From TrEMBL:
Molecular function per GO: aspartate-semialdehyde dehydrogenase activity; NAD binding; NADP binding; protein dimerization activity
Upper lineage: Bacteria, Bacillati, Bacillota, Bacilli, Bacillales
Source organism of the structure: Planococcus lenghuensis
Assembly and oligomerization: Homodimer.
Record keywords, A-Z: Amino-acid biosynthesis, Diaminopimelate biosynthesis, Lysine biosynthesis, Methionine biosynthesis, NADP, Oxidoreductase, Threonine biosynthesis
Protein name (record): Aspartate-semialdehyde dehydrogenase
Family: Belongs to the aspartate-semialdehyde dehydrogenase family.
Active site: 126, 233
Amino acid sequence: MVKLAVVGATGLVGRKMIELLEKKDIPADEVVLFSSKRSAGLEVPFKDRTLIVEELTEEKTDGGFDYVLMSAGGSTSQTFSPLFERHGAIVIDNSSAFRMDPEIDLVVPEVNTPQLKRGIIANPNCSTIQSVVPLKLLEDAFGVSRVAYTTYQAVSGSGVKGIEDLARGERGEEPVNYPHAIYNNALPHIDVFDEDGYTKEEKKMMDETRKILGKPELDVTATCVRVPVENGHAVAMNVTLNTSPAVSQLQQVFRDSSAVVLQDDPANNVYPMPLTASGQEEVFVGRIRKDGSLPNSYHVWVTSDNLLKGAALNAVQILEQLLNRNEGLE
Ligand SMILES: NC(=O)c1ccc[n+]([C@@H]2O[C@H](COP(=O)([O-])OP(=O)(O)OC[C@H]3O[C@@H](n4cnc5c(N)ncnc54)[C@H](OP(=O)(O)O)[C@@H]3O)[C@@H](O)[C@H]2O)c1
């Protein structure tokens, strides 16, 4: 008997989680959906039934849950994830609240497995997830000593309010969520600025990459940019390896792996794009070139659906990893 909760069930990520639970036929005997008071009472079709969204309260965390998919923002996670954990659940937490806690696993199933010192597992930042999947392949094949990221992040990464701001701009209205118009624009500003000039989003990519790859010494830097794309993040990675393989060797590593899809045929206009990644579960890589300005360095362009692999799918894959592990124990 497996009892599962989805918190933030009415959000962009939560809705994808529910779709994936159904699509992948996750063996949950009971699924309970939570939101804030605002959306409580909404009806959500799930398999052959209709689930009614409930308002999350402290008392409801003691509902005998085995697993909780938590996707309702950092402050909701801060309050409720430890309560679910205390009542015996394993929480897969989509917010940044616990990601850098040394006791808490930060997991991308293609890269690492949870150690479960705590009953909370953190789901990494969306751009980080799609970046570490190809980086891990390069690490295993050639060793990685440095990476510089530049991101092109879709407005769905800001949740419902990001999509609403893009639509407002298209109608000629002022933004509400972003400090400037996102329509016809690009904002080098995701999350708040730290004193050193980096944003928290950039710091997340830098810190989380080191933690997931288990390489605290890795040189990483990032510039994160919001672009007027509805869904699908792109990341330009500049990677320095320990050796100097041919570009074709990098392509072969990606071609041989089931973790990524290689789309690298520029002569025929074949390369990864947010539009073609949106709605897909895979991480796409292409535009692989040698960077002549630095020894052992390469450009790799990566796209993925930020709501799927960047959020809901990665969380559901972690859940599958846990369920398979439990099956193995029986
Ligand atoms: N969007 C992405 O690409 C992405 C990627 C990685 C991680 N994440 C993270 O995933 C989380 C959700 O993001 P999203 O894009 O799905 O946001 P969203 O579309 O704005 O949805 C937020 C969800 O949280 C619920 N919620 C808000 N306050 C709550 C409370 N006090 N108690 C219970 N539920 C509450 C909302 O319920 P109501 O309907 O009642 O308001 C809604 O279901 C965030 O932590 C975000 O940082 C998002």
